[in-house]
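This section describes the prediction task in plain terms. A model, or a person checking by hand, is given the sequence of a single protein chain and must write out its three-dimensional structure as a string of tokens. No templates, partner chains or ligands are provided. The sample shown here is typical of the held-out split.
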Amino acid sequence: MRSNSGVAASEVILDAAYRCLVKHGYAAVSMREIAREAGVALSQLHYYFQSKEHLFIEVMRRTTEQHVQEVVGWLAQVNAEHRLTELVRIVRNKLHEDPGWFRLLFDFSSLAFRDAEVRGQLCRLFMRVADEAARRVGGLWQTPPVGSACSRLQGLSPETMGRIFVAALYGLALQVLMESDDRGWMGEPAWFAELLSAVGAS
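The expected answer:
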């Protein structure tokens, strides 16, 4: 335990829960296992988080906030000429740095169909990322380079383009992860490597 303060203890538990959830998935992990990973008594874990559902939501609330801030940083670098390259690079870099985050997100998505609070948290994540994309790069798509493949998207609102950004970001990640094995990140599938090369993001 890094500190005796309540704040530090809860952070240690959240870190441990994140590692366990990424490794085993929500359905398979237990509160006892998380307590053991965190180095705390099970009673102490329940003092901070009354249920596994509550703990899971807190893990996702913290990690999604961190993710939104990452997205803000990524989008700040996007310009009209390199927007597609940057979008694909965002996916590639996040998959390399923290593939477990996407696994947790998709686990979270499955639970959202059965839990209203989880669904609300997930919708807020998608909305925040879409809003940031709309604010920072949505307008760029309204004037695509002449003759580009994006020209058919001209005139779509920034809000709609923000939603398309979300679909592309998480949709690409899902496909890549589905083609990796249980041992973790094993490199890009051939189709993704081809896409990286085609847009200059390799």
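For orientation: The CA atoms of residues 154 and 202 lie 27 Å apart.
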